[in-house]
Design a protein that fits this description.
Oligomer: single chain
Radius of gyration: 20 Å
Structural class: alpha/beta
Distance between the termini: 45 Å
CATH architecture: 3-Layer(aba) Sandwich
Number of helices: 20
Strand content: 5-15%
Shape: globular
């Protein structure tokens, strides 16, 4: 492995993380140092970071490493964490930009749902408690880490609203294993992502993911977990091994729209950390990777039956036409009880968050070298399998 760049060397990263965690040094079971080293190497070789980017990358890696140390230590101190059962968790998966975020936020309004909040994912130790879940000082700590997005990322809230008390996705939780597509979204780390696509140990990722859910619910449980990220497509087979009774909402959309929107999001995010972002390269790179995991997801579902799992396929066009009708269909398909209070809260959230509330995300395929005919040809097996219509 290379020596990296200033602030991004493996030995100094581990030493600084240990210091920030009060001297803790046990990273627990499963791979961590090897994928960390691969990420640091790729940041040095591929990312072309500017000064701000090096700082952001260093702090992100340190945050995940500190969190890992605390998860391991808390589990030693608090035996009740290991006793937690995760039963029939709901996972929202699918291509990027297919309505997964707003659907996650809607389902999280049901009092029976337990969705990870951004603040507790950023600062998970000690495990959050029901009595202080809305007043925990870590909420303010999380808010303080968030940049002035209007200044740094103009219009970003129109693409992906953020806040300490908004739901967070599992792609961020996966960062605490150093195995997540999140890093290649934020930074151009092609060598790392190539490894993640083909060699990463997803069984270990989901083992630690299970431990994270146990940790977060140990003092603040709900009737069911409601989780989301398209990154679950990378490890769908291992997700089903770890959570054989999973309830999975698989979202679908015309890949021309989802690919172009995701290329726009990724280009905007990377421009903070690098001065040499190529939107055309971003789109071409992600198109090949997403095609692979989508087709593999179909193969996994066709390879065998999953007697204790339930899948529901949700179509983006149906969702934007009538969000609550789709929510009702999800509850029926997954056999989830719908209470009057849950329905009222979800309807109220939908009414309060109409499309365009935070602005309109505008993008065009030609900005990213996306040829609709080529995309639909590349994704034809996916399009035909789910009978997707062009938008």
């Amino acid at each position: 492995m290379t020596e990296g760049v200033a602030g991004l060397e493996i030995d100094s990263t581990l030493a600084e993380a240990s210091a920030r965690a009060g001297g803790l040094d046990d990273l627990g079971e499963g791979p961590y140092v090897d994928p960390l080293g691969r990420l640091l190497d790729s940041l040095a070789a591929d990312a072309d970071l500017n000064d701000i980017g090096r700082m952001i990358a260093s702090e992100r890696v340190l945050l995940h490493t500190v969190n890992r140390l605390h998860y391991v230590e808390d589990r030693k101190r608090l035996p009740q964490i290991a006793e937690q059962e995760i039963v029939k968790p709901v996972f929202i998966i699918g291509m990027p930009r297919t309505g997964t975020t707003i659907l996650h936020d809607i389902l999280a309004q049901d009092p029976a749902s337990r969705a990870p909040m951004t603040w507790e994912v950023m600062f998970p130790s000690p495990p959050p408690e029901t009595a202080t879940f809305r007043t925990d000082p870590r909420i303010g700590m999380c808010a303080a880490t968030m940049p002035d997005r209007d200044a740094q990322l103009p219009g970003f809230d129109a693409i992906h609203p953020m806040g300490p008390e908004l739901t967070q996705e599992c792609v961020v939780l996966m960062g605490d294993t150093m195995c997540t597509p999140l890093f290649h979204n934020q930074f151009r780390v092609t060598t790392y992502q190539d490894w993640l696509d083909t060699e990463a140990d997803w069984a270990a990722v989901y083992d630690f993911h299970h431990r994270q859910l146990q940790h977060l619910q140990s003092r603040h449980a709900g009737a069911r977990w409601v989780l989301k990220t398209g990154a679950h497509l990378w490890g769908l087979d291992q997700l089903l091994v770890r959570y054989p009774d999973a309830r999975i909402v698989f979202t679908h959309r015309d890949p021309v729209k989802s690919m172009t929107s995701y290329a726009s999001l990724t280009s905007i995010v990377r421009q903070v950390s690098s001065d040499t972002v190529d939107p055309v390269e971003v789109a071409a790179d992600w198109m090949a990777r997403l095609r692979r995991v989508l087709l593999r997801g179909i193969e996994i579902r066709q390879a065998r039956t999953y007697p204790d799992a339930v899948f529901y396929d949700m179509y983006f066009q149906d969702f934007i036409t009538d969000q609550f009708t789709q929510v009702e269909a999800i509850y029926a398909a997954l056999d989830l009880p719908m209470t009057g209070e849950g329905a009222d809260r979800m309807r109220a959230f939908i009414d309060d968050n109409p499309p365009g509330k935070h602005g309109i995300h505008r993008y065009a395929p030609e900005e990213f070298g996306v040829d609709p005919a080529t995309v639909r040809s590349e994704f034809r097996p996916y399009i035909e399998h789910f009978d997707l219509k062009a938008e």
